[in-house]
C-alpha cells in the first residue's frame, strides 16, 4: 500500500476506503463523479486539472465568482494543475502513480496513449495500478473514436426514447431528465469497478497483486438500466414505449395535479391500495367497475382511471392532498423541488442535507454520503478548492520537490 499523504483539513482515516490513494485525470462529469464517490468513502483523491481548471468550475450558477457545484464536485480532493501536453508534466503523472492505488480518467480512447500515458506506461511505473477508464463507447468497437457526452449515452442506451409522453400524445422532443444522468451512472459503475479490481489485487485469500484496467462506456452504463426491455424484445419482439408519468405495467401510478398546480405522485396499483384510494376518493364502487377490476384491466383503461383520479385531486391543494393520502397509507408524495429536498425532515435527520463552510463560498449546502457504512455520516473532509491549491503540498510532500523547483515548474507553464 502506498504511503498516505496527510490531509491538512481532516482525519483521513474516516471511511472504509481510507488508505487508498487515487489519481484523477478527469474532466467534466463522469470521472470526477466516480472519484467523488470514492473520496466520500474515505479514499484520498488527487485531481489533476489543466492550468486553467476543469471546465465544470464555470458551469451553472455563479456565487462570488465560483460555481457552487464545484464545492461538491471536487470535495475531498486535492487539486493540482498539470499541462499534460508538456513532457515534464507527463513525467510528473508517472511519478505520482508510483504512490497511487488507482487512476481514473475519461479522455477519449487513445488520448492518453498519444501523451505517453497509456496502460503500458502506467503499469510500468506502478505494476499494481488499477486504471479506471470512462468513455462514450468503450475502449474498443467500431464507435470507440466517436465523441460522446452523457446525453449521447442516454440516447444510444435507450433511455431518451423512453423519457417521453405516450406515442401520439405530444409533438415535443423526448425530455432530458434534468441532470447528467448518463455521466453519473457511468461514474458509479467506474467507482464499483475500481473497488472490485482493487479487491482482486489485494484480497487476503486470492489477491493477485496485479493491477488492471476497468473499461466503462456511457452508452453501456445507461443500457444496463433498462430492466426487462431487452429480454422482452428478444422473446416477444416488443419494443418498450414511453409511458409519460405512468408505468406501462401497473395502474394507478402517475402524477396528478392538485388545485394549486402541485404535482402529486400516487402509487396505488395493488388491490388493497386501490381499494383504499377509491374509499378516500368517496368512490368505493370503482373497485367493482369492470374497467378497473384487477391490474390488467386498470392498465387497459388507464386513461379513464387517471381522468377520474385527476378530477378528484383537482378539488384540493397539494399539501392537503398529500396529508390525506398519507393518513390513508397510500404511497404518495409531491414532486420535490430542490427547495423541498433541502428542508425535508427525513433528509435532514439522516444527514443528506448539511451545511458546510467553503472558503470560496462561505456556508454552502452539500448532499450527504451514499451509501452509509456502519451508520456513519461523515462530513466532507474538504470542499472543492481553488485552481492549483494543492500544487505545493502534493508535489512537495509526495514527490519531494523543493519550493524552488515548484516555482520553476510554474514559470515554465507545467503547472
TrEMBL record:
Xref: PANTHER family: SUCCINATE--HYDROXYMETHYLGLUTARATE COA-TRANSFERASE
InterPro entries listed in its UniProt record: CoA-transferase_III_domain (IPR050483), CoA-Trfase_fam_III (IPR003673), CoA-Trfase_III_dom3_sf (IPR044855), CoA-Trfase_III_dom_1_sf (IPR023606)
Single GO molecular function: transferase activity
Record keywords, A-Z: Transferase
Protein name (record): CoA transferase
Protein's UniProt keywords contain Transferase: yes
A family per Pfam: CoA_transf_3
